[in-house]
Amino acid sequence: SQTIHQWPATLVQPVGSPLSLECTVEGTSNPNLYWYRQAAGRGLQLLFYSVGIGQISSEVPQNLSASRPQDRQFILSSKKLLLSDSGFYLCAWSVGGGLNIQYFGAGTRLSVL
Amino acid sequence: KQEVTQIPAALSVPEGENLVLNCSFTDSAIYNLQWFRQDPGKGLTSLLLIQSSQREQTSGRLNASLDKSSGRSTLYIAASQPGDSATYLCAVGLYNQGGKLIFGQGTELSVKP
User: Fold this and answer.
1) How many CB atoms lie within 10 A of CB A92?
2) pLDDT tens for residues A57-77?
3) Calculated CA dihedral for residues A18, A24, A29, A31, nearest 10 degrees
4) Out of B45, B49, B103, whose CB is closest to A43?
5) Predicted pLDDT of residue B14
6) Would residue B19 be called left, alpha or beta, if left means φ above 0 and alpha means ψ between -120 and 50 degrees?
7) In terms of DSSP bridges, do strands B107-112 and B10-14 run parallel, antiparallel, or are they unpaired?
8) CA B1 from chain center: how many Å?
9) How far apart are CA B39 and CA B41, in angstroms?
10) Looking at the partner chain, which of A6, A99, A101 has a beta carbon nearest the beta carbon of B46?
11) What does the pLDDT look like over B52-61, one tens digit per residue?
12) How far is residue B4's CA from residue B90's CA, in Å, rounded to a whole number?
């Protein structure tokens, strides 16, 4: 069966510090991968998606970047965090090559202070 | 630009009631529509997926309908239970965009015992 792992679960970082959130999927090959952010009182916003290794589409211009160094690994990064980067970050995957159900990780709660 | 709206934003009902959550979208050119459940501080769990060619899907006490022409979907929950308390999100899937989902803001449901 397929599983998705996200870590860390909670993170508190000072303004200006770097960020690296990791997401891995097991039990499937060539998945589509997604990073979402859910800010307090706001809906879920798609940040990046990837349909293959090294293929990243950015949805919203911002202080963040994403990379996919391996087929089932998706990384969200920042060189210098802003206060506005605080939120709940969710990674998701779906079967590649088609529009199917998206399965979500447990999320990372990021607080930038 | 596709926009998804969910009404109401919050709903409180006594246990045992049947209830309907509403979702509307502005562009009828969707590939599918998904309903998710989110418990506080947790990731999303997929409840039902309706392909654009379908009119409804059922799972247990849940029934989701889709009317593409009017840009609406409803999630019907029969015989609500306190364990149904959560935020319910609908999301529309877009064609040819890597399985991208556009989410509504969610309806926060509270079922009182």
Assistant:
1) 28
2) 888 867 899 999 999 999 999
3) -60
4) B103
5) 97
6) beta
7) parallel
8) 20
9) 6
10) A101
11) 999 999 999 9
12) 8
